[in-house]
Amino acid sequence: WTHIVLQEQSRLPRANYEWFRASVHNWVDYIRRNCPNPDVQIILTMNWAYNNDFDKYSLQNEILDRNCLALAQECGITLVPVGLGNQDHFEQGGAALANKLHNDECHPSFRGTYMASCMEYAVIFNESPLGIKFNSPKLTPEACKEVRECVKRVLDKFVQ
Q1: pLDDT computed for residue 160 by the predictor
Q2: What pLDDT is attached to residue 70?
Q3: From CA 6, how far away is CA 27, in angstroms rounded?
């Protein structure tokens, strides 16, 4: 393996950071001890706030961002800030646009899955998401382009 992606549900990093922290540390230690590739890149995916309370959406995404970033830095692993893409959708178009990323209060729609995939691809391969040619057959080409532009905005801000 060249890359191993760790992902947790959105609730734990917000509600019980110490348990989340211990879990990620355990996995990172296990991978580093047992992976046949000593140069494997360990990636933590930052999830997103639930969309059942848009009054607290930005605050919840901020908590996820802060906790996941601190943990990634502490463990020396890469962070893919998917939740910041959700926040970008909310900032660009309010609850109506943010809801396009969800099938229910927490599970991603095809748009949300496409966004996370584009962001992970861009981070893993260190390439601009604008260069991604694949369009999800479940989305219009225009929607795919909007998502890739969102990912570019988010990653540009995140890297700075």
Answers
A1: 64
A2: 95
A3: 8
pLDDT of residue 14: 86
Considering the entire predicted model, what is its pTM? 0.93
Rounded CA separation 77/155 (Å): 16
Q: Tell me how crowded residue 132 is: count the other CB atoms within 10 A of its CB.
A: 19
CA 42, CA 9: separation in Å to the nearest integer?
17
Burial annotation 92-119 (CB, 10 A radius, 16+ → b, else e):
eeeeebbbbbbeeeeebbebbbbbbbbb
Q: Report strand pairing: 78-80 vs 3-7.
A: unpaired
**SS3 readout for 110-127:** HHHHHHHHHHHHHHHHCC
Question: How many residues are given for the chain?
Answer: 160
| pLDDT, tens digit (0-9, with 9 covering 90-100), for 44-65 | 999 999 988 899 999 999 999 9
Which has more confidence, 62 or 159?
Answer: 62
C-alpha gyration radius of the chain: 16
